[in-house]
Amino acid sequence: MSIQQPEGSGIRPPAVLEDRRRSQRVMIRIGVTIHINSLGKISTLRAMTVSVNDHGALVISPQQFPAGAHFTVENNNTRERILCRVTRLPQSTSDGFHVPVEFEKPAPNFWRIAFPPRDWKPVS
Questions:
Q1: C-alpha 18, offset from chain centre
Q2: Can you tell me the distance from the alpha carbon of 31 to that of 48, in angstroms, rounded to the nearest whole number?
Q3: pLDDT tens digit sequence for 27-42
Q4: Are 74 and 35 in contact (CB under 8 A)?
């Protein structure tokens, strides 16, 4: 379904969220460990991804974090670690907090999965 605007109105339909993404998002559960440095003390939390991309992930965490918080995410399959920041306030759900994280730098190989081509669209 598309939004039709009168020609010459200068109004453009809102961009589809998927069209604005910097990289393809894949819905996949990958175990991660969150490493938090608080006042020089390192603590860890077990978590799970909901979705991943070249720039970060949506993580289910037992703990909420403020937007802008920094921590390290470890891929439990590879033991590789990467510095992340929370991009917005997590949403509370029945399975924990959905925490959107962005890598400090894009890391296309961090998740060790093959992403679909950029022009791939799922069948509705």
A1: 13
A2: 5
A3: 999 999 999 998 889 9
A4: yes
